[in-house]
C-alpha cells in the first residue's frame, strides 16, 4: 500500500511486511525475549511499573537513559545489522531517502493483558534521526500528539500487524502513546503470537 503522511515527518506504511516476514520478525522477538538481557518489566522512577514488557538490542534503555548493560549488569543482546538495514529501507519508503540514518538500538515492547503505553517523548537519543516502529500481532490504537505537551491536538491511527510507522523531522519529538490494543485482532496465521509486539529502531547518537 501507499505511504500515508499523518503529519509532517510522520508516515504510516500499511502492510509493509508480508505474512512470512511478520512470522520471521515474530520468531526473532521471541528469541530475543529469551536472551540473558531478555524480556523484563520496566520500573519507573517513582516506583510504578510499565505495563509492557521490554527487551533492548544494542543499548539498554531504562528511564531515562541508555547504557551498555542492563540494570543488573547483564550484557545487552547485539543490535542486528539486518534490522538496521530493514529500518533504512522503511525510512527510504517513507521519505524517499534515508540520508545518513545509522540506527544502533531497538526497543522491543510486548503488550499483553491490557498493557498500554502512556503519552511520552522518545528523548534519550541525542540524534535527531527518525524512529522506525514495526507492529506485529494485535492491532493497536496509536496516538501521535504534538511536540509541546501530552494533550490535544493528536492524531489517532490503528497500527496493524505488518505495519510500519516512521516519525522523524518535525514529528521526531512528538508525544505519542498506545492507549489501547485490540485483543484477538492478530492475523490468525501468525504462529505463536500472544498480544502485540512492537519493535522501535532508533539511532542513539551516543
Ligand atoms: O508500541 C508502540 O507502537 C510505541 C512504542 C513506543 O512508543 C516506544 O517504545 O517508545
Ligand atoms: Fe515512544
Describe the structure in your own words.
The protein is α+β, with helices and mostly antiparallel strands and 206 residues long. It has one domain: Jelly Rolls (Sandwich). The chain is 15% helix and 35% strand. It has helices spanning 19-33, 81-95, and strands at 4-7, 10-13, 40-43, 49-57, 60-62, 65-67, 105-111, 117-120, 131-137, 140-144, 155-159, 164-167, 176-181, 196-202. The strands form 3 sheets. It has an 8-stranded antiparallel beta sheet, covered by helices on one side. Strand 3 and strand 4 form a beta hairpin. The longest helix is centred in the N-terminal third of the chain and has 15 residues, at 19-33. It is globular and about 40 Å long. The chain starts with a strand and ends with a strand. The protein binds 2-oxoglutaric acid and fe (ii) ion (FE2). 2-oxoglutaric acid is lined by residues 107, 109, 117, 122, 133, 140, 142, 159, 176, 178, 198, 200. Residues 102-205 form the Fe2OG dioxygenase domain. InterPro entries: Alkb (IPR004574), AlkB-like (IPR027450), AlkB-like_sf (IPR037151), Oxoglu/Fe-dep_dioxygenase_dom (IPR005123).
Quick summary:
Residues 102-205 form the Fe2OG dioxygenase domain. The protein is of the alpha+beta class.
Number of domains: 1
Q: Count of helices?
A: 2
Are any ligands bound, and if so which? Answer: 2-oxoglutaric acid, fe (ii) ion
Biggest sheet features: 8 strands, antiparallel
Organism: Stackebrandtia endophytica
Keywords: Dioxygenase, Iron, Metal-binding, Methyltransferase, Oxidoreductase, Transferase
GO biological process, one term: oxidative RNA demethylation
InterPro entries: Alkb (IPR004574), AlkB-like (IPR027450), AlkB-like_sf (IPR037151), Oxoglu/Fe-dep_dioxygenase_dom (IPR005123)
Amino acid at each position: 500500500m501507499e505511504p500515508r503522511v499523518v503529519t509532517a515527518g510522520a508516515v504510516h506504511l500499511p502492510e509493509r511486511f508480508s505474512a512470512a516476514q511478520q512470522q520471521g520478525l515474530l520468531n526473532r522477538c521471541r528469541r530475543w525475549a529469551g536472551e540473558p538481557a531478555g524480556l523484563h518489566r520496566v520500573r519507573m522512577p517513582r516506583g510504578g511499573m510499565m505495563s509492557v514488557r521490554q527487551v533492548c538490542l544494542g543499548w539498554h534503555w531504562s528511564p531515562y537513559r541508555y547504557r551498555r548493560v542492563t540494570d543488573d549488569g547483564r550484557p545487552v543482546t547485539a543490535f542486528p545489522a539486518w534490522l538496521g538495514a530493514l529500518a533504512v529501507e522503511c525510512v527510504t519508503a517513507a521519505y524517499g531517502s534515508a540520508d545518513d540514518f545509522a540506527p544502533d538500538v531497538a526497543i522491543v515492547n510486548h503488550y499483553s493483558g491490557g498493557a498500554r503505553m502512556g503519552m511520552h517523548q522518545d528523548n534519550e537519543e541525542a540524534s535527531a534521526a527518525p524512529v522506525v516502529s514495526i507492529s506485529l500481532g494485535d492491532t493497536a490504537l496509536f496516538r501521535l500528539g504534538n511536540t509541546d505537551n501530552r494533550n490535544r491536538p493528536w492524531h489517532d491511527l490503528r497500527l496493524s500487524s505488518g505495519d510500519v510507522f516512521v516519525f522523524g523531522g518535525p514529528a521526531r519529538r512528538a508525544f505519542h502513546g498506545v492507549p489501547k490494543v485490540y485483543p484477538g485482532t492478530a492475523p490468525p496465521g501468525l504462529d505463536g503470537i500472544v498480544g502485540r509486539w512492537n519493535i522501535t529502531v532508533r539511532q542513539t547518537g551516543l
